[in-house]
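Q: How do we represent a protein-ligand complex in a form that can be generated token by token?
A: Start from the inputs.
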Amino acid sequence: MGEQAGRLHGKVALITGAARGIGRGIAERYAREGARVAVADLDSDSAGETAAAIRATGGEAMAVTMDVTDEAAVSDGVSAVVTAWGGLDVAFANAGIQHIDPLDQLSFANWRKVMAVHLDGAFLLTREALRAMYASGGGTMLYMGSVHSLEASPLKAPYVAAKHALLGLCRSVAKEGAAHGVRSNIICPGFVRTPLVDKQIPEQAKELGISEDEVIRNVMLKNTVDGQFTTVDDVAELALHLAAFPSAALTGQSVVVSHGWHMG
Ligand code: NAD
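Then emit the structure tokens for the protein with nicotinamide-adenine-dinucleotide bound:
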């Protein structure tokens, strides 16, 4: 670090759900490219560890404790970053959870919980980030969609519905944000081996009455072109490209990274 200006040199980025998994990979990648990175997460211990690990390798990072479904916590977290680092250039709504259940068994509480983390969380971050970006002349909003923003799978109705809805939010931001210099794009990954996915393999095996290996081969990777998982590094590479893109030509887009599971 330091000897060469990175592609995000001088930028301030806040990423939700960045304590682990895909969000952590993006935070680390952004920091390596010179961004100051706010690692926002519900899990403050892990957020602190991730921020410390980034600093240990020469990057700049702070941990922000934030439940994205808590209006005050999101507002306070964004304010803390803007106060500390003087602005906000990139805000990434990445925090997410999964819940596996057939629709006829799904409780209203679990429906609402999944919708709240993905959709309320993305809205709250968007509103606070746009206020900061509009005040400073622009920025980039990014969302973590999924192939499930574009396709459905059984047993994941609230997740599929929330991820579809994020396309609408992303496109709305592209329309409204343009006049203020704000771009907005959404990344749609296929399956990535993170704790979120590892947890659902045995759950799906039980619901579908098949082995865990069959869940991986015949459910998760069945429609990929090569039977491969997408990796955290693949998603982080795309997240860097979208954050560093130099103009508003690229806005309102969903970009799929899924080993060809979804094409189109
Ligand atoms: P993960 O479970 O490894 O990490 C999710 C992080 O979000 C955790 O650190 C968790 O503490 C945090 N989080 C959960 N609820 C929160 C809340 N209310 N407020 C703040 N933070 C919260 O999951 P992941 O696989 O890294 O997923 C990250 C994003 O990528 C999610 O939006 C997920 O839907 C999406 N995604 C994942 C995959 C995949 O295969 N792993 C594929 C497509 C999209």
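The pocket of nicotinamide-adenine-dinucleotide is lined by residues 16-17, 19-23, 41-43, 66-69, 94-97, 117, 121, 144, 146, 189, 191-192, 194-197 (CB under 6 Å). The chain has two domains: 12-190+231-245, 192-229.
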